[in-house]
Amino acid sequence: MLIKIFTARNSNALKLPPGPKKLPLIGNLPQMRRPELPHHHMSGLAKTYGPIYHLRVGELTLVVLTTPDIAEEVLRTHEINFAQKPLSLSTETMMMDKNSSFMYAPYGEYWRQLRKVCVLELLSVKRVRSFQSIREDEMRNLVQFVRSSLGRPLNLTDEISSCLTAIISKAAFGESYKHQEEYLSALKEGIELASGFSIADFFPSIRILRYISGRKWSSVRQRCDKISSRILNDHKRRREVLSIQEVGSAKEDFVDVLPRIQESNELGFHLTDNDIKSVILEFFGGGTDTSSVTAEWAMSELLKNPQVMTKAQAEVREALKGKELAQDLDLQGLKYLKSVIKETLRLHPPTPLVPREATKACKIKGYDIPPKSRVLIHVGAIGKDPNYWKDPERFEPGRFLESSIDFIGMNYHFLPFGSGRRVCPGIAFAMANVELLLALLLYHFDWALPNGQTPEELDMTEDFKATVSRKRDLYVIATPHSLGHD
Ligand code: HEM
């Protein structure tokens, strides 16, 4: 502990980025005292301290970056040095074992091999396409459910979330897996516990804090672990009775693919059962809420901006004229709808603070960044930087129509999926789900707010948990649109 305090004092010799005054021992902990919306709080601090600033919270150095040019310096110029994710205590406790994680694996051979499996096998365009029938079934159910609401107020937040979670869980576990509800409820609890900062993260050398905070997380982890072990073992047993042709076919779910790779030993190291369970857990953790809140914010913005809604509906209805529900829809031509999704991700990135860790000491914009500093790339503030975006607060999908700006991490003023080697590997999967869902909702229904609420009155207050969602669920009234045969 003394060593840590000494190091903290000594760090004054470095030229650190600016930041608020620090109290002895706790540093800027008062500034971190559970602000309800940390991303707004951090944008506010940038107004006082500039586009790169630092906070010292207990033993932790936190560096916040809020402009595209600084993000580029970190994510491109110093990419390898920042290719590491910081491990919070909650995440560490939720892991199956300390060495089993893809999302938090140190940048190195283990991560590289798992990343290859994710990109080439689990989340490839071919695999994402192979889940089309799952998407169609779930979305058909959603459309039928909305239709049966008969003009009554409908909780669209819940419906979007159930539909997208069902798709991801069927892609992971197979068509009808009996333990998925149990798994999802344990995972939801884990995600809620893991969101936000824990005091034990700020004082890692005080072991008792780790013990106290860790207890509640480890019980959730044990539940997830027990269920996923059961799921994995059932899949392994089923594999034993599958024919050779069926093994390795496009019909495999995620829990089929990973044991096949485990058996083949093609990675150069042994993939353990814990590795497999961690990948699945992280896909759920990283893929479910992010996709749901994107679709939910898109519908909210469309309701708030009726002219945009009309334009998006006109495009979708023209392109999908006379098509059956979700069958074989080609969404390639839906340029305006794609722009709506991009604009939604610009204004409402589900994870506005993307965390990375400095492996070694380096300089950014002339400031010293000590090793092990936690760096937060504020992609929320970056997406609203007035030097890069005209009328940044306005929802204006047209700005993406004639532009080549994409979200794959090459445009540093638009980073909803991060950038570089750690960029989100789930982009194709997320987009396939969100695009189809929005296309069908716009195609089949006209939308209004309940109780005579006007678009201006729609409350857009945010809530910050693991992702930034709406604080209040979105209620809507759906009216079937001429059964889609106009
Ligand atoms: C709209 C939906 C989504 C958004 C906005 C999103 C956003 C992100 C972001 C910002 C990162 C960090 C990137 C970085 O550090 O540069 C990330 C990483 C990750 N995402 Fe996503 N994500 C989405 C959907 C998904 C889906 C559907 C999956 C999988 C089923 C997924 C799996 C992952 C994984 C495994 C990582 C860690 C990658 C690594 O560390 O190498 N995400 N995502």
TrEMBL record:
<dbReference type="InterPro" id="IPR036396">
    <property type="entry name" value="Cyt_P450_sf"/>
</dbReference>
<keyword id="KW-0349">Heme</keyword>
<dbReference type="GO" id="GO:0020037">
    <property type="term" value="F:heme binding"/>
</dbReference>
<keyword id="KW-0560">Oxidoreductase</keyword>
<dbReference type="GO" id="GO:0005506">
    <property type="term" value="F:iron ion binding"/>
</dbReference>
<dbReference type="InterPro" id="IPR052306">
    <property type="entry name" value="CYP450_71D"/>
</dbReference>
<dbReference type="InterPro" id="IPR017972">
    <property type="entry name" value="Cyt_P450_CS"/>
</dbReference>
<dbReference type="Pfam" id="PF00067">
    <property type="entry name" value="p450"/>
</dbReference>
<keyword id="KW-0503">Monooxygenase</keyword>
<comment type="similarity">
    <text>Belongs to the cytochrome P450 family.</text>
</comment>
<feature type="binding site" description="axial binding residue">
    <location>
        <position position="424"/>
    </location>
    <ligand>
        <name>heme</name>
    </ligand>
</feature>
<keyword id="KW-0479">Metal-binding</keyword>
<dbReference type="GO" id="GO:0004497">
    <property type="term" value="F:monooxygenase activity"/>
</dbReference>
<keyword id="KW-0408">Iron</keyword>
<dbReference type="GO" id="GO:0016705">
    <property type="term" value="F:oxidoreductase activity, acting on paired donors, with incorporation or reduction of molecular oxygen"/>
</dbReference>
<dbReference type="InterPro" id="IPR001128">
    <property type="entry name" value="Cyt_P450"/>
</dbReference>
<dbReference type="InterPro" id="IPR002401">
    <property type="entry name" value="Cyt_P450_E_grp-I"/>
</dbReference>
<protein>
    <recommendedName>
        <fullName>Cytochrome P450</fullName>
    </recommendedName>
</protein>
